[in-house]
Design brief:
Heat Shock Protein 90; 4 domains; four-stranded mixed beta sheet; 14 helices; 20 strands
């Protein structure tokens, strides 16, 4: 087994493992196995019991505050397993520095990441910190709240009930984000022609209520991907990209992004797709797999998320990916979600329903997005022979609807 984000091998006991203890305690936890080389070869520790005592003393003397960990000796191979649990009293420091895992390496966090760890240790979010500017107005928020919530006026009592104001600290960052004017970045939109060298429109919405920025961005979306056509005696609105998917993706970018980074949400509009990229990777406490499954959501900005929900800007918190995928239920081309350490990008393709032949649609429906299938497992569910099925699969691959994995008898096919 190779080293991973949460697994590290140590051939012997040196102080370098203490950086990894700091990283595991500050984030997702993990395991350090002593007596194993970097390539996974087990060599063992001469005196595992004495090694446990040495490891325990080093952690207790060098890591502050003390993390929650467990030590176990594996007698058959004379290795020592150190399991470090995610801590609540962040940051966990080694020689005055906090560490994190970067793939299989351990590195010191920067000042911004350290500030985030301090907030987590205090059980606070950036949006809950007092706003530097306390001279705020909320005309746009008030109009939305009157319409959606039914209030008569946006009083301080209402703002307190929405967790946007406190008697002790005044307005917080969440309130500032919703104010008519603020100092936060916003949404940068670029609309392209047939290539990225042809910019048809460029507009940035920033330093105003995020609710207003969302509505303005939706207007640009409608101008780009919606049109009307006449069917009989009626005008019918056509959406090349489902509006509910675009709205959900952009609203979630505003709710889940990191607001302590002075970067815009980037929206790129192409003839065949829209790309929405938000600063900040996944919030602590959720894995990439859990995010992509859409079964679990951890709100980075719960106050802001609650406002969006109460104002019906999003339907149900935590179901964004599921709703986006549902909007593409009948489309051959599906949304793509790219998760990186410092950003999340949602790619929404133009809905394509009728650009496959009837035979291609049959074989496409026999494939899966999750499990690659060999041609032998596909044949029982289609009315074609092997040669025709192979030709149809090649045609689907050329149209970028499927990907081909492997060669020869090991060749498998999967929906892109």
């Amino acid at each position: 087994m190779k080293e991973t984000h949460t697994l590290e091998y140590k051939q012997e006991i040196t102080n370098t493992f203490l950086k990894t203890v700091s990283a595991f305690a500050n984030y997702d936890g993990g395991t350090v196995i002593f007596g194993v080389q970097d390539d996974g070869k087990i060599i063992g520790i001469q005196n595992p019991d004495a090694a446990c005592l040495d490891i325990e003393n080093k952690i207790n003397d060098a890591i502050s505050p003390q993390p929650h960990y467990e030590l176990e000796v594996h007698n058959p191979n004379h290795t020592v397993v150190l399991t470090v649990h995610p801590g609540l009293d962040k940051p966990y420091l080694y020689k005055g520095k906090a560490y994190k895992r970067n793939d299989t390496a351990t590195i010191a966090v920067d000042s911004l990441e350290l500030s985030r760890l301090i907030l987590q240790g205090r059980n606070m979010d950036f949006e809950a910190l007092p706003a530097a500017n306390q001279d705020l107005s909320f005309h746009f928020l008030e109009e939305k709240a009157k319409k959606e919530i039914g209030i008569q006026a946006l009083t301080l009592d209402v703002l307190r009930s929405l967790n946007l104001y406190s008697n002790q600290d005044g307005y917080n960052h969440a309130a500032e984000l919703l104010a008519d004017q603020n100092d936060f970045p916003g949404i940068d939109i670029a609309r392209f022609g047939d290539s990225i060298n042809i910019i048809q429109k460029r507009v940035t919405f920033s330093h105003e209520s995020v609710l207003h920025e969302l509505e303005k961005a939706l207007e640009v979306y409608r101008d780009t991907y919606q049109y009307e056509k006449i069917e009989g005696m009626e005008r019918v609105k056509v959406s090349l990209i489902p509006e509910e998917a675009f709205r959900e993706a952009l609203a979630n970018a505003l709710i889940h992004r990191t607001w302590d980074v002075k970067a815009q949400i980037r929206v790129l509009l192409f003839p065949d797709r829209a790309e929405i990229s938000s600063p900040g990777g996944l919030a602590s406490g959720i894995s990439k797999e859990e995010y992509l499954q859409g079964n679990l959501s951890v709100l980075r900005n719960p106050i802001l998320g609650n406002i969006f929900y109460r104002l019906h800007m999003v339907e149900i918190l935590g179901t964004g990916i599921l709703r986006i995928r549902a909007a593409y239920e009948k489309s051959l081309k599906q949304p793509v979600f790219k998760v990186q350490e410092n950003s999340i990008t949602v790619i929404l393709p133009v809905v394509t329903l009728f650009d496959l032949t009837e035979d291609e649609q049959i074989i496409y429906q026999a494939l899966s997005r999750n499990i690659p299938k060999s041609i032998s497992t596909i044949l029982p569910s289609i009315p074609f022979g092997r040669s025709k099925a192979s030709a149809l699969l090649q045609a689907l691959a050329k149209k970028n609807y499927i990907i081909i994995q492997g060669r020869g008898r090991g060749t498998k096919y999967k929906i892109l």
